[in-house]
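Why predict the complex rather than its parts? Because the way molecules touch one another can change local conformation, and only a joint prediction can capture that. The input here totals 1770 residues.
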Amino acid sequence: MFRHQKELQFEAKPDRPNPLIAKYLQELIGGQYGEMSVAMQYLFQGWSCRGEEKYKDMLMDIATEELGHVEMLATMVARLLEDAPVEDQEEAMKKDPTIGAIISGMNPQHAIVAGLGPRPADSVGNPWSGGYIVASGNLLADFRANLNAESQGRLQVARIYEMIDDRGVKDLLAVLLARDSYHQNLWASAVKELEENEGSILVPSTFNRENERKDIAYDFYNFSEGDESSKGSWASGEALDGEGEYQWLAEPKIEGDKPKLQRVTPKMYGTPPSKNKTCKSGYVQHPLGPYHSTE
Amino acid sequence: MFRHQKELQFEAKPDRPNPLIAKYLQELIGGQYGEMSVAMQYLFQGWSCRGEEKYKDMLMDIATEELGHVEMLATMVARLLEDAPVEDQEEAMKKDPTIGAIISGMNPQHAIVAGLGPRPADSVGNPWSGGYIVASGNLLADFRANLNAESQGRLQVARIYEMIDDRGVKDLLAVLLARDSYHQNLWASAVKELEENEGSILVPSTFNRENERKDIAYDFYNFSEGDESSKGSWASGEALDGEGEYQWLAEPKIEGDKPKLQRVTPKMYGTPPSKNKTCKSGYVQHPLGPYHSTE
Amino acid sequence: MFRHQKELQFEAKPDRPNPLIAKYLQELIGGQYGEMSVAMQYLFQGWSCRGEEKYKDMLMDIATEELGHVEMLATMVARLLEDAPVEDQEEAMKKDPTIGAIISGMNPQHAIVAGLGPRPADSVGNPWSGGYIVASGNLLADFRANLNAESQGRLQVARIYEMIDDRGVKDLLAVLLARDSYHQNLWASAVKELEENEGSILVPSTFNRENERKDIAYDFYNFSEGDESSKGSWASGEALDGEGEYQWLAEPKIEGDKPKLQRVTPKMYGTPPSKNKTCKSGYVQHPLGPYHSTE
Amino acid sequence: MFRHQKELQFEAKPDRPNPLIAKYLQELIGGQYGEMSVAMQYLFQGWSCRGEEKYKDMLMDIATEELGHVEMLATMVARLLEDAPVEDQEEAMKKDPTIGAIISGMNPQHAIVAGLGPRPADSVGNPWSGGYIVASGNLLADFRANLNAESQGRLQVARIYEMIDDRGVKDLLAVLLARDSYHQNLWASAVKELEENEGSILVPSTFNRENERKDIAYDFYNFSEGDESSKGSWASGEALDGEGEYQWLAEPKIEGDKPKLQRVTPKMYGTPPSKNKTCKSGYVQHPLGPYHSTE
Amino acid sequence: MFRHQKELQFEAKPDRPNPLIAKYLQELIGGQYGEMSVAMQYLFQGWSCRGEEKYKDMLMDIATEELGHVEMLATMVARLLEDAPVEDQEEAMKKDPTIGAIISGMNPQHAIVAGLGPRPADSVGNPWSGGYIVASGNLLADFRANLNAESQGRLQVARIYEMIDDRGVKDLLAVLLARDSYHQNLWASAVKELEENEGSILVPSTFNRENERKDIAYDFYNFSEGDESSKGSWASGEALDGEGEYQWLAEPKIEGDKPKLQRVTPKMYGTPPSKNKTCKSGYVQHPLGPYHSTE
Amino acid sequence: MFRHQKELQFEAKPDRPNPLIAKYLQELIGGQYGEMSVAMQYLFQGWSCRGEEKYKDMLMDIATEELGHVEMLATMVARLLEDAPVEDQEEAMKKDPTIGAIISGMNPQHAIVAGLGPRPADSVGNPWSGGYIVASGNLLADFRANLNAESQGRLQVARIYEMIDDRGVKDLLAVLLARDSYHQNLWASAVKELEENEGSILVPSTFNRENERKDIAYDFYNFSEGDESSKGSWASGEALDGEGEYQWLAEPKIEGDKPKLQRVTPKMYGTPPSKNKTCKSGYVQHPLGPYHSTE
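Output of the joint prediction:
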């Protein structure tokens, strides 16, 4: 259950309207790593949480904070769009090349669809998608997703910070940068805690490694020319998981054959066998098929 | 530039056809964390790499390996679909309830669209999307994305491993589990290396922290009832970035006001002011607007 | 700014696990008219609101309530998935045809991707999309969108209510049905209030009707055979907007010509003119083109 | 079955080419509330119509009219693109800043993909989606969707009308404004007719209200600070459905508990229980599970 | 402009309801090569047609026919859904395993969203997308797209024909198969006509081939092991375009270098240069950059 | 299995940075007919190939070549973005209108999301979609898809060639034009070979034509006014498939009735029958329904 409080947690006032900045900020609202993504991601992780209460509580705290970030950015975008050059554009454009550039650079949906308000979309107009968010039911996996999300997010905020001149917008970005710093610290701490508790850096830590091909679990295969990749920390020495030794192989191990598929029922109308030569691999009912008993 | 070699790196032969398993494996081909995603993600990261050669070379190695994983899974799916109950289904369904369940559970596009071959889509049929992949130009951010991707990926493989009984498919999954183990080790090692080199765990490490609101960069705000979140490693003690001290605040800091938007030009046809009362906030040309000089 | 309260507003406990019902409920979480849609729709409308405070406050109240609805449904889905037949499926399937049907009918991502938790997607697996939501900056238009959303939503809940037997799930649906009843009443009341205040049922009410083709603004054109459409309330009598008289025309008015496009620059590589006959409409620089002065 | 007639119903000739207006008009062709949406929406509603013939006939009439609207707009866009500055852009751009703005503002797919023709997409380039349309099999619900669609549509046309200077385009928009006026009248009339006939404003009107939680069906819950929402017509007095009395509650009713999910099978590889403390909620086979008999 | 005629061109009556067949037919309505795709594709091609009238007229004829095909299929789906087992499913499922399979195999949106009507989506539920259609402004290119579309379409119809037992549905599919035969003939004829008229099989035929690298325009590069590809008609002899001789090269020509990207401004916050070694390729203002004059 | 070779097959160096050209080239990377599409399309066709080895080998060769094309274009885009005007944009914009146009025309995700690198998306920002690719299991159908893809692709390259002035980019486009020429030749040759071998131009060639409505398989129906369509090669004479005679019918054949759907169970909550008149078509349990035996 949620409650709404009217104050913004931090102020969201631009120095002056600017529809290009409004377009940029959409990335932080509805982009792959925008605030809608992190809010929804932490909510679904919290709602699916079957683990310790402190993780669930923490997830709900941060998710709820992020909802407020969407609100601050949505407010900022609405204000940046006030006074946008939306009327009689052709005339305005001819008078002043800067206005011309703004008109042609503006997101047209900001005017036509939203009437000078924010959109649930990114900076090029792709609508936000549920496909962005990650909630797997495994907290170590998901906290790594979160650490990535806050890293990508802070990077994008830093870039926009340099692209613009508006002090008011920069003040809000300075807040977001700080909160993304904290959230990176937080997820990194929580990842460390879980790794220590689970006794492994591998997700999932509980899968019985006897069931994987552990003999190939520490190999680096050199699939490209050159051996620069052999110089990294991943190429030799003890593996981070403490259970093996990295090895760099100049040539990949190959165990498989050239695959050759069987023909299937002609009722699927695949390419018929060539008439010009003897066809050796015609369709044969699979003898071990689970659907037709062989008796 | 790429070359193709006909052998599969590892074998991809099911014990017997099974269209339900074929449907599950689609998640590993074309899902958010399937092999198409990691292959394309590492390719775009490699192609955008402006850093040291060893990272670029390594990215291209792993990307190229993952392309081969898509191939192994695509081959496996094609073989699992051989002998699927695609003809005269109604009759077949009435005879045998297990066939009935298989028919109704099968992905219909495996038959209708692909003629018993794999699809560039996930286990419920969503087509693979370029929106899944991450390539930001910042390797530390992206390697965290990669560590997450391999964590989610290995988790999904482990789950399918338990859901099915087919030994041949399990043999391939055992390979994928091992490679995902290695790749988790690899990205974790590379992350560690970059963090040490950049001297910070924060992405981006080069943003001048004087420009962020560092005074709020170590606060945990308790946005939900209960204080379980105060028990985590993120709530007190020195922050992982070594530049501050975590603090857990029972109440979030609030600096902002209730936002109140200005009316905009009536030509956007927003809701007109109420006729029943004096309207104090009619549309006023913004005095600092960049487009209309005030003179 | 938001706060989270740990209690669910209403209880969300199924009588017993059932992954098929879990699949159905996804429509109410992440479908076009699911709770994610209405929550986000009302939030964006509230954040864009430039009108009277009572509308903004009301939008934020209902939006916040709907966020809690997502939470209740997400919790219900997680519980319906407990004990789903996810292990050794083939064997289980052969033993019991009902389990077979459940396995083949289950959303595979509920197991593989979410580890038996809810997904931000609809009942066939399409991820939720920002493209579903409506926030135009005109409250009368948007409240009509909301009335539609609550109508579609309650209809879907009513259908699922009849499809299932689980008392615990039905208890939650009974709550949603009541709240959707209230919300239909609410939006209908708000629509009525705005129509009365704006003095028109047309959106936007402030567009100067002299600028539209008012002479054709009350015509019904019979574009199909048969005249059953002439029997509706829309076909004769005074129009609801009070400014005209409906008329039903057996034949549509036609004012336009057959369109014939000009050829464009050959550098766009359209189909070249036929060699077999005299081409009368070759590419001619448009004399009034805005880009090339004619002097 | 359909027939095509070569005349456009109304003329579609711009005064002069203008690729920026072409970009705007795409919203009316392939946007969420563009003509493709309403045409397809009314078609699917007509084809699914199990009710009275007059509704089906009317739906097919209006749908068929809207197909002609797509055609008029597509023709207009093609003409607006004639003579667009597509060749040797860099040189052209340096000569004239207005051309520079046009080049950078133009939808690049208008040239590269469509060769100066219209696109089945909106003004920022999102392809039209079947996910936009609504056809539920309940006419009252769907006519509300239609009333909303025509309201959003007319709003967007009105906005573009103000943004541009081209008389020829405005003439077509004046037609669309009038037809959207009529269609708003039409759907409002049809909604009224159905509400009267069904004897209720609630969708679906036939759901037995004893089965919903009628005791909470007239409550407004104040989920946000402030009581401005209590001043609306939805907050007190008789409800529009005539079956209850609105009440505004300063505090939401709360009936539920804090949710606590059960652990599920370890084969789903969720987060394992903490090793540091006694775990009280380990995985227990659900006693009422439908799949495993308890005997 | 369009007209609607009430008769279906061909009958659309199943022998008996069957929601699984309804699910399959969705591929023919809203799949990548369903009737919505071809109808819309031919419409946009017709509306963009700047060539001879006979092509435009023909495109509009076929497009209009295809709209009627959507109608026939939509009607068929609605009828196949009548009497679907939508109520009290759990009980019904336990009684009869075939009903169990049907319930679990049914598209849940057919009931929940559409109330037993058709959906603008494919057989796995992906909404139809404007991204499927092709209209480039070059008829030869587009007629090849059309020939492909009718080929894929007829293939899918043929597959469904074999999958089902219902005579009434098969009668409609027999009509679609015939029309797809004709349309394949038609597009193949039109392609041939255009190729002859344009004097080339290459699209676009009017591009000056002096501007392409004609020296590499007839090479087959063997990028994979094995030389089976050398046995095709594409590997030797005169090229179909009549302007060159195919040659099969055992090794691809290589002209390029290893790419090495420049560092960009540090304000984009890419990975900083390693501190451990001399960095030779730091960021240098590009001397030929178009934005900063060098004076 | 794949290998990576560090050299680009052909050089990818622009004369100077230009972010507008970078935006255009995205169409060739991640558009519907970009190199990601053809690479993935040929891979999936190759992996699904159940036919002769020479086709599979050839598909893998061309697919592998196309992967290298993505790499060349990705490299080119990265270089075109070097030195883009990303910092302090407002100030830069005011100084120079050309820079203003470039800033407003640039894809903002090139800076904010990718840090001046390529994106897996098209020229307006739509992410690449698995929905673009075609792999049906029938080679004749798929080779027609490929011929179309290379036609659309070469057309787009030709257009961009004319739009830009950069010699270095044009050099790469000249390579792509040549390779697209070859690939058109190749697919046309392969189509011809398959048509000859299968003995039919119809896909699928093996469907028994007795089962289609062959009596209507050569009819052109004139669904629009005017008879220009009767002048094409598709309107008279022997059909290309050699099995019939084209005929042009001034009026379409009509065999169907007006469809009238049955009412379905009231539990789906469709529109209830009108109270004002005798309802003749109430819901009747379908006597031949497969789910409820009539005994």
